[in-house]
Amino acid sequence: MSRQPVGGNVGVGGKPPEPKGQSVRAGGAEFVRKLRWLMLSRSLFAMLTLGATLVYRAGEHLSFFVEPLTSLYVVAGFVFLVNLLYLGAFRWFKHEEAFGGVQVFGDVLVVSAIAYLTGLLYSPFLFLYPIVIICGTIILGRVGGYLTAGIACIAFGALVDFQYYGFITPPGFEFSPFAEELTGQVVFYRTSVLFLACLVTCLVSGYIAEQEVRARADLAVMEEQVKRVEKMAVIGEMAAGLAHEIKNPLASLSGSIQMLKGETGWEPHHEKLMGIAVRETARLSGLVTEFLLFARPGAGSPVPILVSSVVEETVALLEQDSRHGHHVGVEVLVVEGLTVCMDLGHLRQVLLNLLINATEAVSDGGSVIVSGYRENRKCVVLSVKDDGAGIDAEIAKHIFDPFFTTKKEGTGLGLSIVHRLLDECGGGIRVMSRPGEGAEFTLSLPSGSGSLLSRQLPDRC
Fold first, then answer.
1. 277 lies in some domain
2. Same structural domain, 216 and 307
3. For residues 91 and 39, is the Cβ–Cβ distance under 8 A?
4. What angle in degrees, to the nearest 10, is found between the helix axes of 344-361 and 307-319?
5. Beta-sheet strands, E only, within 258-365
6. Which of 225, 247, 281 delimits the end of a domain?
7. Helix (H) or strand (E) holding 431
8. Residue 203: exposed, middle, or buried by beta-carbon count in 10 A (0-12, 13-18, 19+)?
């Protein structure tokens, strides 16, 4: 498989690349859905605030226009108005994350206004700060949740400082029994409790949001694997029948040509024609053999295999091939005593295909590194890394598809066979590539320690 410059990391099969915690973001339709839920929740909150204010006024037999009820009316109406503006601008706003950030920041200001109007330190609505932080984490990811918590703490702390030093006074607070209790100790205690609640909320919600992203990535990889397996199963059944139909006539054709070469009356110029026929027959036979290996690889005989020994044997075999092994240095960095449980022939075929691809991807004097280590009790990781040009991101999506190739010569079955053999033994494969930094194929294989792993086990490496 030829490599070309790539635009980023690509993971296929096996375990997906780990998402970076600093860039945990929702995207596309999912992000739009979350923004719509945020706006709907904001409208419901405004309705509940207005309804609760009216119920409180009726229960206390108060006038409609008395503080802080009047201010709460204004806040509820303002939230409705802003939400309508959000809805109007929603379809025209090109940067969805920025639009979500504006809304979350506005919610922090609204909550701060509600807290100020209802007693600030003694407000019954301080629980809205953690709710806004959770919304910020859902919309903007873990880092967005941290920023929301920081802005909320700064806004609330500033209001409390202004109240403590007498710059502002919440409506009706001077007549409240809490006015005489506003000491430095009380301010510090109540502010610290809210800050701690915000901190815990952002940490917990950030962790949950990150796990959600990881779960979605795992699910996407599994769905892609299921689709690939289903497609390969259909192609495999068709290929097996077709290959058998082709292979039998090939054998007859090759035998007939050999017999003709030995008959009398042979003309010298026939030698070249017969040589072409024999060569093309052998090439077609090799293609059919690869086709059969992809279509029906067979279970093989899983046994504990010493990885370093097989890798060294495969590298030695490659170096004897003048087409691949003479212009590239192959370095083996496999942990001593590392074992895997799979068919020996299958492992050799996997390593040989990956090494051939790697050597074809690098120029003269390039290098290929084969490394291996134990990831855990059940899983061993092998990687084949080259310093070629890398794989284009669009091409990487299809490199495990049957008959996909960018080479002038090639069947496009090499990596498909690798994927199929690994799938048969309960392993996996992923590829990562960066522009100008080559490509790395990472294999996840069942460990060879302990008893042999049954192919019927549901747990895959």
1. no
2. no
3. no
4. 50
5. 303-306, 328-334, 339-342
6. 225
7. strand 428-433
8. middle
Is residue 5 assigned to a domain? no
Nearest partner of 367 among 392, 391, 388, judged by Cα: 388
Closest by CA to 342, choosing from 310, 367, 318, is: 310
- Which stretches within 91-183 are classed as H helix? 96-117, 128-164
Using an 8 Å Cβ cutoff, are 311 and 334 in contact?
yes
In a domain, 71, yes or no: yes
**In angstroms, rounded to a whole number, what is the distance separating the alpha carbons of residues 15 and 23?**
19
Q: Which of 31, 23, 19 shows the shortest CA–CA distance to 142?
A: 23
- Using CA atoms, how far residue 287 sits from 350, 360, 403, 434, in Å, is 17, 19, 11, 32
Structure tokens at 94: 């090109």
| Total number of domains in the chain | 2
Q: Last residue of some domain: 208, 225, 242? A: 225
CA 355 to centroid of chain Cα atoms? 26
Q: Identify the CATH number of the domain in which residue 318 sits.
A: 3.30.565.10
pLDDT at residue 88, rounded to an integer: 76
Domain annotation covers residue 289: no
**C-alpha to C-alpha distances, 111 to 114, 117, 171, 376, nearest whole angstrom:** 5, 10, 16, 48
pLDDT tens digits for range 252-298: 667 767 766 666 566 666 667 677 777 777 777 766 676 666 666 66
Q: Among residues 262, 260, 387, which one has the least CA distance to residue 3?
A: 387
Average pLDDT on 149-156 reads: 94
Pairing of strands 366-374, 328-334: parallel
Domain extent, residue 329, equals 303-446
pTM (global) more than 0.85 = no
The two tokens of residue 443 are: 């294999």
> How do residues 190-243 score in pLDDT, each as one tens digit?
999 999 999 999 999 989 988 888 888 888 888 877 877 776 666 666 666 666
